Amino acid sequence: MSSSFVELNNVTLRYSEGDDLALDTTDMKIRKGEFIAVVGPSGCGKSSLLKLVSGLMPPSEGTVIVDAHEVAGPLKIVGMAFQNPTLLPWRTTLDNVLLPLEIVKPHRSRIRKHKQEYIERAKELLATVGLAGYENKYPWELSGGMQQRASLCRALIHEPDLLMLDEPFGALDAFTREELWDILQNLWIKRPFTVILVTHDLREAAYLADTVYVMSKRPGKILVARENTLPRPRDQETTFTQPFTDLVHELRSYIRDVRAA
Ligand SMILES: Nc1ncnc2c1ncn2[C@@H]1O[C@H](COP(=O)(O)OP(=O)(O)OP(=O)(O)O)[C@@H](O)[C@H]1O
Fold this sequence. Notes:
Layout: E1 4-13, E2 23-31, E3 35-39, H1 46-54, E4 61-66, E5 69-70, E6 78-82, H2 93-103, H3 105-113, H4 115-128, H5 144-156, E7 162-166, H6 174-190, E8 194-198, H7 202-208, E9 211-215, E10 222-227, H8 242-260
Helix pairs in contact: 2-3, 2-5, 3-4, 7-8
The structure holds adenosine-5'-triphosphate.
Domain ABC transporter: 6-242
GO molecular function, one term: ATP binding
Protein name: Nitrate ABC transporter ATP-binding protein
């Protein structure tokens, strides 16, 4: 009996028959409530990994197991957020946050009867990320950082056990990005869900993750799984400490080697 929440066993991925592998034998074991980050050169298969774990793509070989079940189709226990917040422009912030509940099955039938309860939950989440008072604004009335906060709330409204983030802060300026690191860390400390974060930002990986996975060039493989035991909660001061800068340098040296390979 395995204690992992997400497990990839000898997984490979080829997008089409005759194509080169996008992912080569990949093994991962992620604990329940663990926050992991995946870094690696462009095109190494980071987003492909998310597609496999969320059940959007089946592996060509090997197995993907989430919550003790082999993944055989899109999972309902997943929340996702991407670099582009993709809020629907005709819906208010609150209605954008409520959107997954209208789509994800177990909630779809409940939301009609218990709408007020869900609205309260959405408002509470929005307040946690500093968006109280913006519930009735439209996306075009929000800054990029505010839109990304709303998209985090949308990813978490159905209380998913697994959160997948594909470069969620990549398009934001450095200050806003670091503010969002704290917001995400606080949400996770409050209700620990399992997180898979894909990022190009090594400081972001070092700030947020319990384990940082470094991938090779295509075909992607996990080369290093670096545990990060920096104490939590981490804050801006953490980023000036020697252990933090050492970790970032170490990650940078892995990436340098991968790129040179
Ligand atoms: N739908 C697809 N069909 C065919 N090939 C694909 C498809 N999606 C991705 N690929 C290829 O698979 C490889 C891995 O792509 P993926 O998007 O997972 O990489 P990535 O590490 O997330 O890249 P980036 O950091 O640039 O976002 C790339 O070479 C890409 O061209």
